[in-house]
Specification:
77% helix, 13 helices, mainly alpha
Length: 296
């Protein structure tokens, strides 16, 4: 019988990353189906709670002996994680999945470009901004929901904060310990809003099962696969693959939610994907291949 580690090592790390990306986006599509019953806040509460329970059981992180700075960083990480997912799910209720992820994706993209004085990086930023503007103009059936766009932009800004905080927490906690703690904090913070939006629906077996599925698809599976893949995959290659997230999101929206993609939407998504890929390729020349990557 082949050991589990050997079986995992036989799978190309690029394939693990792509499976993780698909898992996140299809998880978001399934979460969308629960909004009518539990609301975005209720679904996020279930996702965070189940994810925290699973990862805390697996990692069993220790808080005793930690410095105040480490604990404050974990607290801030949990708050950002909670608000990022909540604002994204609010956007997802008002926008198609592909455009919502595309707009959100500008957050980490701008973090990658921030501080650069290279003309090419400025052009990548302009291309991504043009894609978002094109999305805001809508397709043949009118403009996208303005509130949804604002929620997606907020989620993108929080995603940028998440990346910066994950580097701090990742250096203070081993493995997924910091993430497990942050998920627990985020779940506790979201309890009031989740109960207000979800109410008694949160106790329905179907909703609970759906929340567990979303937690596994959107958190447990991708984080685990990324952690395994990053042991064998350069940072630049990881970033390049992650550039495909908006495209996977659009595909999940079509297959799971039956959402239609118009030509203008497709062009806008491609613009952001190209900008992200270009930024990643530029970054390869600026940093060592072994530089750690924040999971997100």
């Amino acid at each position: 019988m082949i050991p589990r580690a050997a079986r995992t090592a036989a799978i190309p790390p690029q394939a693990l990353i792509l499976v993780g990306i698909a898992s996140v986006q299809f998880g978001s599509a399934f979460a969308n189906r629960l909004f009518d019953q539990a609301g975005p806040a209720g679904v996020v509460l279930l996702r965070l709670a189940f994810s925290a329970a699973i990862l805390l059981a697996l990692t069993r992180p220790r808080l005793r002996g930690r410095s105040r700075r480490d604990l404050v960083a974990a607290l801030a990480f949990g708050l950002v994680l909670c608000l990022m997912n909540w604002s994204f799910y609010e956007a997802l209720r008002l926008l198609p999945l592909g455009p919502a992820v595309t707009v959100e994706f500008t957050g980490p993209l701008l973090v990658a470009i921030a501080g650069s004085r290279r003309l090419l990086d400025v052009l990548w930023a302009a291309l991504a901004t043009g894609g978002v503007v094109l999305l805001s103009l809508g397709g043949s059936h009118g403009s996208l929901n303005l509130r949804g766009l604002l929620f997606a932009l907020l989620a993108g800004a929080l995603w940028a904060c998440y990346i910066l905080l994950s580097q701090r927490v990742g250096s203070a906690f081993a493995g997924l310990d910091g993430l497990a703690i942050a998920l627990g904090i985020g779940a506790v913070v979201l309890i009031p809003a989740g109960i207000i939006e979800g109410g008694s629906a949160l106790l329905r077996p179907g909703v609970l099962a759906g929340g567990l599925a979303v937690a596994v698809l959107s958190s447990v599976v991708p984080y685990s696969l990324e952690l395994i893949a990053l042991r064998r995959l350069p940072a630049a290659a990881f970033g390049l693959l992650m550039s495909l997230e908006p495209a996977f999101a659009a595909l999940a929206g079509v297959l799971v939610l039956g959402q239609r993609l118009h030509a203008r939407t497709l062009v806008a998504i491609v613009m952001v994907v190209i900008a992200s890929a270009g930024t990643t390729l530029e970054a390869r020349a600026k940093r060592p291949e072994s530089e750690p990557v924040a999971l997100g």
